[in-house]
Amino acid sequence: MMAPVRLGLRANAAQFTILVGLNALVGAMVGLERSVLPLVGEREFRLESHAAILSFVVAFGAAKAVTNLAAGALADQVGRRRLLVLGWLLALPVPLLIALAESWWLIVAANLLLGANQGLAWSMTIVMKIDLAGPTRRGLALGLNESAGYLGVAVAAFASGVLASSIAPRTVVWTGALAVALAGLVVSIVFVRDTADHVTHEQRDHGERDTLPLRAAFAEASVRNPVLRTCSQAGLVNNLNDALAWGLVPLYLAAHGASTPQIGAVAAVYPGVWGFLQVGTGWLSDSVGRKSLITLGMVVQAGALVLLVAGGGDFAASLVAAGLLGLGTALVYPTLIAAVSDVVEPRDRASVVGVYRFWRDAGFVAGALLVGFAADAIGSGQAIAVVAGVTGLSGAFVAATPWRTQRLRLSR
Asked: 14-193+210-400: which CATH topology?
């Protein structure tokens, strides 16, 4: 006889813990690239254009954004666990492509697959944790999920930066990626269980019905619903900043004389602070509300970018700026997904979260294009200053939005 389905972190502690650990591997997969891959493009492939180097971030963001959208739409039809396993299968060719690449465009192709891996694997760990947690501890659940993921990013970014000073950077990336991809696939197949029954259980309180069609979910999260619309734009700008931190900041620091270990340290501090604080900020958003934390987080991110430019590439100032950027992102990241989940019914959760994550990860594309071309045209420091202004405006938009917290039945 099957055990009854129960919602809550304590009732589902074993599965929740497995998913937390799995998301650390998802984060490590992308963290391996964060401190060294832009330098590989500049030094090994002799790319002089910032826009050309950041093309790998464009590929990653485009693939991840579209996969997020597809994953949200397919989660109820195909199953969360199956999409999770597919995500890890798509990760397996990534280390091979990076190892054998004789041109930069094979690195770009590898990042298309990496983006698809992240879109499927990270999306499903998020949705499955929301399914397990139930409505009362959603912010804490998402804080734990995002914390594990971005601590994985931070550890991998720091380790790859340190190892790249004595081992060929590409070797560090592809060997680490192979080990992480194999571990993630095995854990997903052997230990993870689907959470469809938890969705059905929670939906009973709202009346049984079909999932909102993707077209309607896209319209609600992009245009119609004020809270969802605001979350989508804030998520996009947040990841615009992340694209800058990933693709341009290592080049900016290197141009000002920073060593590879120093660049690795800056690249690790940002997601490290971000990851470490998200458990607290997610829990706090359950108590004080979502809007104030999102607004504050965007303002702090803007201030961090201003400090980065004002420091002129100084290592100490860059470390402080990275820490502040991590703090601002920690305030925003789990809170935005929790805010999206607050206003939709359980049956619509996967599709609407998928649309939000589409817009959020479209920020990688927008950010890489913006900072790449701006850096080529006006310089890296000025490009970072432009992004700081955009981030401040995004925070003002959040502050001006009326915030309805009751759950809505979205229009079909």
From this structure: Growth Hormone; Chain: A; (1.20.1250)
In the 8-state DSSP scheme, what is residue 205? G
For the whole model, what pTM was predicted?
A: 0.79
Domain boundary assignment for the chain: 14-193+210-400
Question: What's the N-to-C CA distance of the chain in angstroms?
Answer: 38
For the stretch 153-171, pLDDT in tens is: 888 888 888 888 788 888 9
CA neighbor of 169 nearest in space, from 314, 42, 313? 42
Question: Is 395 within 8 Å of 295 (Cβ atoms)?
Answer: yes
What is the DSSP secondary-structure string of 105-168? Answer: HHHHHHHHHHHHHHHHHHHHHHHHHHHHH-STTHHHHHHHHHHHHHHHHHHHHHHHHHHTTTS-
Contact 148, 23 (CB under 8 A): yes
Q: How many Å apart are CA 378 and CA 381, to the nearest integer?
A: 8
Token representation of residue 94: 């990534």
Count the Cβ atoms, other than its own, within 10 Å of residue 302: 25
